[in-house]
Write a structure and sequence with these properties.
This protein has 238 residues and is of the alpha/beta class. It has 9 helices and 10 strands. The strands form 2 sheets. It has a 6-stranded mixed beta sheet with strand order 6-7-8-3-9-10, sandwiched between helices. A 4-stranded antiparallel beta sheet has the order 2-1-4-5, with helices on one face.
C-alpha cells in the first residue's frame, strides 16, 4: 500500500499542494482529476523525486520512503505526458539502454527483457524502428514498456490520453486496467473525464492543491448526486 500524509509543496510562495493525503492499495488505480494547475502532475513529480517535497511523508507498505534516494531503488516509475523517449534510438534500444545503464544488466539479459516487453505490447515488429516513426499510441505503449523494464511497484502516469483519439484512449485504459490486475499501484494525473468511464478506479478531484472530493468509479456511477462537486466538474467537461 502507498500512503501519502500531508504532502505540501509551494513554488515562489504559491501553494501548489496543500496537505494532500491518500492511500492506494496494490492493484488499485488512483486518478487525480482536475483542471490544469491544481497540483495533480506536481504530485506525481514529487513521488518520482523530480521536485522536492516541502513537508509531509510517503510510505510504502508502512515503511517511510526516503525521497532523496527513491530513484535508486526503482520502486516508482513514471510515464510522462510527452513520453520522454529517446528519439534518436530504436524502439528496442529505448528499453535496453535503460536496463544496461541504469540496472547494469548484461546485453543478453537486456535484449531478452526488451523482446518480452515489446511482444507483450505488440511492438515486436517495430524493434529496429526509430521512435520518430511511431504513432502516438505506439509511443505510449513503448513508454509503459520502458517503465516496466525497471520493475517498479508504483506506476505514475501524467495525462496518459492527452494526445490520443477515443479509440486509442480505450486501448490505453485497457492496458492500465491490466497493470492494475497484475498488482501494480497506479496513480494517474488527468483532466480527461472520458478515461474514468473505462477504468475501475478511485477518483480524487483536486482544486487549488487540495483533494476536494473522492469516490470510487463504481460509487460515483451508482449515485452521482452524492458527489456534487465531482459531478459538476465532469458535466462541465462534456
Amino acid at each position: 500500500m502507498l500512503r501519502l500524509e500531508n504532502i505540501n509543496k509551494s513554488f515562489h510562495e504559491k501553494k501548489i499542494l496543500d496537505h494532500v493525503s491518500l492511500r492506494v492499495e496494490r492493484g488499485e488505480i488512483a486518478v487525480m482529476l482536475g483542471k490544469s494547475g491544481v497540483g495533480k502532475s506536481t504530485l506525481l513529480r514529487l513521488l518520482n523525486n523530480l521536485e522536492t517535497i516541502d513537508s509531509g511523508s510517503v510510505y510504502l507498505d508502512n515503511k517511510k520512503l526516503d525521497m532523496d534516494t527513491i530513484n535508486r531503488g526503482h520502486k516508482i516509475g513514471m510515464v510522462f505526458q510527452e513520453f520522454n523517449l529517446f528519439a534518436h534510438m530504436t524502439v528496442e534500444q529505448n528499453i535496453t539502454f535503460v536496463l544496461e545503464k541504469v540496472m547494469k544488466k548484461s546485453k543478453q539479459s537486456a535484449h531478452k527483457t526488451a523482446a518480452e516487453l515489446l511482444k507483450h505490447y505488440g511492438l515486436e515488429g517495430k524493434a529496429n524502428s526509430l521512435v520518430s516513426g511511431l504513432s502516438g499510441g505506439q509511443k505510449q505503449r513503448l513508454a509503459i514498456a520502458r517503465t516496466l523494464a525497471l520493475k517498479p511497484q508504483i506506476i505514475c502516469m501524467d495525462e496518459p490520453t492527452s494526445a490520443l483519439d477515443p479509440l486509442l484512449t480505450t486501448h490505453v485504459a485497457k492496458t492500465i486496467q491490466e497493470l492494475s490486475d497484475e498488482g501494480y499501484i497506479i496513480l494517474i494525473a488527468t483532466h480527461d473525464t472520458a478515461l474514468l468511464e473505462k477504468l475501475n478506479c478511485t477518483i480524487y478531484l483536486m482544486d487549488a492543491g487540495k483533494i476536494v472530493e473522492s469516490a470510487t468509479s463504481m460509487e460515483f456511477s451508482k449515485k452521482r448526486d452524492a458527489y456534487p462537486v465531482l459531478d459538476s466538474f465532469i458535466k462541465g467537461k462534456k
